[in-house]
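Give me the fold.
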Amino acid sequence: MTDTNTAARRISRRNVLLRLLFAAATALVVAIGTIALWHSLHDRNDVQITRIVLAESYGARSQLIRKVETMFAALHNVRVFWSAYGHLPRDQWELDAGIELNHFGGIDVLLWDDPVRNVRFVRSPEKPAYDYRPPDEEWATYAALLKNAKNASTNSVGGPFVRSDGSQYFEVYFVDWRGQDQGVLAAVIDIDEMLAGMLEDVSPGFAISVFDGDTLLYQRGEPAQTVPAKWTMDGMIKSSLGTLWKVKHEPTAAWVDSITSPAIDLILLLGLLISALVGTLTFENGRARARAIDAEMAELEVAELNRTLEQQVAERTNQLNERTADLQTLTDSVAHDLRNPLNTISVNVQLLEEHAGTELSDDARRVLQRLPPSVHQMANILDRLLGMSEVSHATFEREQVNMRQVVEEIIEDLTINEPDPPIEFKIADLPDANADHNLLQVLLLNLVDNAIKYTQSKSLRVITIGFDSTAAETVYFIKDNGIGFDQEYADRLFGAFNRLGDASAADGVGLGLTIAARAVERHGGGIWAKGKKDRGATFYFTLGDSV
């Protein structure tokens, strides 16, 4: 019996030992598996975070260099503007260039010096206009900046320089434009303010540092103290003016806390108790990784699309500007250069009549007598062509205009030398118009002049100028009792060189209504006409934004 009990105890102790060994082995296997899984998840998490940091770093550098180049382009536009208009009187300037400079911070001073034309300007936050000419004592304060600019051989960036308060700034020099020496533009740009504005909404959650060589230009945020080295990214950006900067991306502690999960560390401690969650975490980790990759690819695609679109827009804009300039040059050339031969014809006809008038036959004299009116008509056509060009390209600015006053002034000018019979004008109490004053004068001048010309054959001449405010916008009209026109041809009235009624019934070259239509188009309004043969005509127009 004793031997049996001893054997049983031995078997029991052996089973306990086996169970302990099995439990230990199981625990060891689970521990090894848990550690392996923990390492695997940590590696995948590192890869995901590294990809996010890489995408953020690339996106920030791409956006920064685009904004820097846009700012340089805006500064160049100011240089071109001052070179083109600085020597002219202020009232001959086009619209001020460089409005896009308002989008960039840190531009402390813009300086323009054209010693050949004795022109100099300064623009600053205190003097935001483009036509400020500083006195000599103020100009002397910019002597060092001007000297640096004139010593620059090409368009370039100087600095960084350090002020007495420790702040840093760049100097930008534009000394060459199309190979012509027409002045120097220099700018002083506060580095911290400029970069703060350009990087304001870029890569939230990251500390960003910008270096010029070993010099720290700008720093935003505090980086986390203990993060893997691969979570820090940097890259170089180079501008068209030769600047070479290093942009460094480092995650902040808040961002690291938001992107890392404590669940991975809990796996190591809890083992089998959280094994059911491992699959879910792995799935979420894989999905997060896919999102990071998709985000990176999407940002790269958007960046490429933006670059392509910006290039296409710039090319199309340049093409349109070139064609518009060519058309304007052609119009001005035709309007101005044809006057000399016309004047020559007129003078030679007069000389021929004076010196050989008695020797010419009656037919020859009749031919000579037909030439001056033709020359006069050609000159009128050129004036109208030039007027139509000016209407199409004039600066447009809406303001409150007293319509009745403008109409009365035009009538007074047009009827000073008007022959009998006199004209009865009926002018309603016209409401003010929200319109460009100069274009509105051109519009009313041509319509009233048209009404006066086509009532000359009437013994009783009546012209009515009124309005109708019952529609969605105010409709103005000018009505006459003249020779009228066939309503069937109303759609042709506003084309160039089309005449109302009988071409011999009134003077004119057929461009007045075309110019009026151009003025209405500039306002975004509409113009149309109603009439009957020998029963008068009425011209209606709107101004797009009437009050």
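DSSP finds twelve helices and 16 strands in the chain.
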